[in-house]
Amino acid sequence: MKRKINLTALRVMTLMLITVLPARVLSQEIVFVVHADPVISWIGSNESEYSGEGARPGFDIGLNVLQYFADNYAISTGISFFSAGGRQSVTEDHKMVFTNFEQVIPAGDEIRYNLKYMNIPAGVRLQTNQVGYFTYFTDMGFDIRMLLKSTVDLPTLQINDENGKNEVYGLNAGWHVGGGIEYELPIDASLIAGLSYAQDFFDVTKDLRDVYQHHDRSTLRMVRFRLGLKF
User: Fold this and answer.
1) Do 199 and 219 form a contact (C-beta atoms < 8 A)?
2) Which residues on adjacent β-strands are paired with residue 184?
3) Are the CB atoms for 56 and 86 separated by under 8 Å?
4) Residue 9 vs residues 4, 123, 168, 201: alpha-carbon distances, Å
5) pTM (predicted TM-score)
6) Domain 2-230, CATH 2.40.160.20 — does that match?
7) CA-to-CA distance for 107 and 94, rounded, in angstroms?
8) For residue 107, which phi and psi values (nearest 5 degrees)?
9) Beta-carbon neighbour count of residue 218 at 10 Å?
């Protein structure tokens, strides 16, 4: 039932993102940004039985499209592919279900999630007038994420790169907010550097009732360091 509600919310969010775009943006300037962003990600839970064990490094590479509807305002969207993950432990013995076997993880043992997503953002970008060679901006909006691959590592049990599709949801959504600076180049392009934070709305890990996994909401959280080229 919970996942049906989540999927309904995703459909409503997608429809809203499409329908709220002002019609007049269609005739305005379109700008592209290619980016390759280092990522630091972790998984946080709303239940005390699940503890975070630290962050994981990752990378986000993709293309953003900015469609301006006023001088300093644009609709931002695009597509990117990123790797992320997190480290968790549980305060009691915890059974996980993999493709060919089930495994009991002792209380306190670390569980590492390695996740690869396709991400589609939709938001609004606000920027200042250019001051010298510099322009400052902020970007905020929503994201729809589709899982491409998930693996799980259990270091204590010497289990690595085990297929995690039974333990991780294939679809999620979240929000992001960030800002940065542009530096105008002599050519018709700008270098971009920035920092952003993103977080899921919904649970990234499944709570399998058949093996009595404790119910919680574990969400993926990320800090991204934007490195890009606008043209």
Assistant:
1) yes
2) 190
3) yes
4) 9, 17, 18, 10
5) 0.85
6) yes
7) 7
8) -55, 135
9) 22
